[in-house]
Amino acid sequence: MSECVLDASALLASLRRESGAAVVEDLLSGPGATMSTVNLSEVVARLIEAGWSELAIRRDISRLNVDLVPFDATDAFETGLLRPLTRQVGLSLGDRACLALAQRLGLPAVTADRSWTTLQLPITVQSIR
Fold this sequence. Notes:
Shape: globular
CATH topology: Rossmann fold
Order of helices and strands: EHHEHHEHHHEE
Number of domains: 1
Structural class: alpha/beta
Number of strands: 5
Strand order of the largest sheet: 1-4-5
Number of helices: 7
């Protein structure tokens, strides 16, 4: 069972060996993490833009202890409902998809974006930086 829901920014920090990577790697070495397929799409897009090959992206992501959850109608609705609560810090659709999944699963959301910790949400938000 996963112990958290990862945002794209957290997984990118790990894959690119950025600040906070060790925190994410510790999470992945234990019970693992969950991630919305919306956030997976963000990760793939950012890595492609940075010059990674599709083969490298598929290889590196497949090695991770991450359970991918399809973005369904329930998640879409909950993601939309989070808009008024997150507008003040400018969260994207992907950010809200991560938070909605964390809320649904009752798990903490893990991100590299410190602004999430200022939100008044019924879930725990952990910043890796």
